[in-house]
Design brief:
The structure is a single chain. This protein has about 160 residues and is mainly α. The protein has a domain of about 80 residues. The chain is built from 3 helices and 6 strands. The strands form 3 sheets. Strands 1-2 form a two-stranded antiparallel ribbon. β1 and β2 form a beta hairpin. α2 packs antiparallel against α3. The longest helix has about 60 residues. The chain is rod-shaped and about 115 Å long. The two termini are about 85 Å apart. The relative contact order is 0.05.
Length: about 160
């Protein structure tokens, strides 16, 4: 796609590979009848050209600002990236502490549930054995058998853990 004398598509430059255009003017672009806000309505002046910004001119908190030759761009100190780094570390430690406490609580809950289940099982076993003993004793009396035969039946059929 070509506008004016500038090509927006990548071009092969002398066998060196494809290269994007470096600079083009806003006047070279024809977008039809688009209405743009005037500088007086927005308080900002519209740019007259669009240029590719070299990477070295971009402000970077780790390598410093464009043109910065001092020691200010190391990234640590009283600035927002350092504050964000500290808050991230604090958040990580808080999450670790919370997960450790949640794990401890889960272990306590499991221990309680296990103890509750064991108590319930022991009570059920005792209740079953008592009912079995009563039933075997009553049958032995009704059938005219000895209490020893009822005791042998209970021991043979009693529930154990």
């Amino acid at each position: 796609m070509t506008f004016g004398t500038y090509t927006l598509a990548p071009t092969n430059v002398g066998g060196q590979g494809f290269q994007l255009p470096q600079t083009f003017s806003a006047a070279d672009l024809n977008f039809g009848n688009l209405v743009s806000p005037s500088a007086s309505s927005t308080g900002l002046a519209a740019p007259s050209s669009f240029a590719r910004t070299p990477l070295s001119a971009v402000d970077n908190p780790l390598i410093g600002s464009a043109g910065n030759t001092g020691n200010q761009g190391l990234g640590l100190g009283m600035n927002m990236p350092t504050l964000q780094l500290g808050m991230g570390a604090l958040n990580s430690f808080a999450n670790l502490w919370q997960s450790w406490n949640a794990s401890k609580l889960a272990k306590e809950q499991f221990k309680f549930a296990k103890e509750f289940a064991n108590t319930n099982l022991n009570n059920q076993i005792q209740s079953y054995n008592t009912a079995l003993s009563d039933r075997a004793g009553s049958r032995a009396v009704m059938e005219g058998r000895s209490p020893e035969s009822a005791q042998a039946y209970v021991q043979a059929n009693a529930m154990r853990r």
